From TrEMBL, chain A:
Species classification: Bacteria, Pseudomonadati, Pseudomonadota, Alphaproteobacteria, Acetobacterales
Organism: Caldovatus aquaticus
Pfam families recorded: HSP20
Domain of life of the organism encoding this protein: Bacteria
Protein's recorded name: Hsp20/alpha crystallin family protein
Cited InterPro entries: A-crystallin/Hsp20_dom (IPR002068), HSP20-like_chaperone (IPR008978), Small_HSP (IPR031107)
Residues of the SHSP domain: 33-147
From TrEMBL, chain B:
Region Disordered, residue ranges: 1-23
One Pfam family, short name: HSP20
Species this chain originates from: Caldovatus aquaticus
All copies of domain SHSP, residue ranges: 17-129
Assigned protein family: Belongs to the small heat shock protein (HSP20) family.
Protein name from the UniProt record: Hsp20/alpha crystallin family protein
Amino acid sequence: MFYTTPGSGWLDPLREMERMRQEMDRLFGELMPTLRREFPPMNIWAGENGVVVTAQVPGVRPDDLEITVHENTLTLKGRREPDPQAAAPDVAYHRQERSYGSFARTVALPFRVDPEKVNARFDNGILTVELPRPEADKPRRIQVKKA
Amino acid sequence: MSEQTAATPAQTQPETTRKVPLRSPVTDIYETRDALVLLMEMPGVDANDVEIAVDNRVLTVTGRSSAKAPPGCTLVHAEYRDADYQRAFTLSDAVDPSRIDAVAADGVLRLTVPKAAPEPARRIAVRRA
């Protein structure tokens, strides 16, 4: 059991740890915007039939997304529009943490992609692009024949 | 109007037993003539997986991610992790938390909290003892 004396946080290690955790959260919370990497953040998955690229694009309308595939590059372009209702003259912001505007990212893939077979889905702000590898390009096992 | 992050919700709610991290969603808050609007980014969270609670003027929003890894694939390059989201705000008396409207679209949750009608002035009659 810990006795908490006001003003002497070190007597209560649990409380002190909680305070430090909050301090760290606050510090990282403030640093994150400057450390922020390219938008949108992407995950790349490799499977037997090709790669799958997923990206977090919350608030981007699917119509505002443009996906292009050329040989072995995937380009994702788009625009995130600010809320149209917030454009009214008597609107006051209390907090603005989201960012808006255009973005473009290009990813080099490890193989050429057949643009006809690319498939894209958009669910709850996550874009999933499936890029199958052409049949002719897949690795093949070569049988060694006996002489 | 005063919105501030309330005491960490983790202190008042049971810990989640999920494998994904719990994050605070990036939020815009703006005020119009007749409402307060909150826009919270929760990518991967379906409208059915959002829980909104108001207790003692503290508004707590929790969203559970339903994003799944593509089947049969391994992650080779990662820039984000799927996460659950939770954030709490303390609402001022100027809004009416009983009439909150919530809409989720494209990974963004929009909460509209209408402003409360001003309390009518009352006259108190003095009784004779």
